[in-house]
Amino acid sequence: MSLQKLNTEALQYLFEGYLSNPGALYDITEITNKYNQNVHEYGSFLKEKNWIKDGRFLPATFECSISFDGIAVINPNYINENCDKLLSTLATLGGQQSLMELLDFGPHEYQRARDITNFLRDSGLIEVIYTHNDGSVSFTMNGRDFYQQNGANFIRQ
How far is CA 132 from CA 21, 103, 114, in A? Predict the structure, then answer.
C-alpha cells in the first residue's frame, strides 16, 4: 500500500480526533501496522513534515495530535472557512471582539479557537490577547489591508 494512502488515513484519523478533543494525543500504531510501517519511523516522518504536534514516542507506540499544517493537507477547507468566518465577522463588527463569539464556538472548542487565532496572529493579520477561556481579537494594520483587498476569501498560502 502506498505512503499517500497511509498519510491520508493517519491525518484523517488525527483530524477527526482533533475535532472531538483538540488537546488529546492519539495513537497511530494501529494505522501504521495496517500499512506495515514502523510507527516510530512514520512518527518521525510526520514530525519532519510538520503535520503533527506533541509527538510522543513510547516503547511500542507513537501518540500525537495534528498540527495546522497537517489539517491543511487533509482538510484545507476547515482552515479557510474558519479564517474567513473570523476575519469577515471581525470586519463587520470592528474594534476588539471576543474570540469565542467571532467563531461562534462553545467552551469545549476553546483549543480549536486558539489554534485558529494563533495561525492568523502568526500570519500577521490579527492581534489577540487571551483571557480565561476566551480572547480579545482585533485586526493588525496588515490584517485590515488584507481584508480590504481580499474580502472574506482567506486562501492559505
Answer: 18, 16, 12
User: All 3 cell numbers of residue 152?
Assistant: 472574506
Q: Does 80 share its domain with 110?
A: yes
Distance CA 72, CA 12 (A): 11
DSSP 8-state code for residue 60:
S
SS3 for 54? Answer: strand
Residue 20 confidence (pLDDT): 94
Q: How far apart are CA 98 and CA 123, in angstroms?
A: 19
Task: Please indicate, yes or no, whether residues 41 and 103 belong to a single structural domain of this protein.
Answer: no
Q: Is the pLDDT score of 77 beyond 50?
A: yes
Task: Measure the CA–CA gap between 155 and 152, rounded to whole angstroms.
Answer: 9
Q: What integer pLDDT is reported at residue 152 of this predicted model? A: 63
The domain in which residue 116 lies consists of 76-150
Into how many domains does the chain fold?
Answer: 2
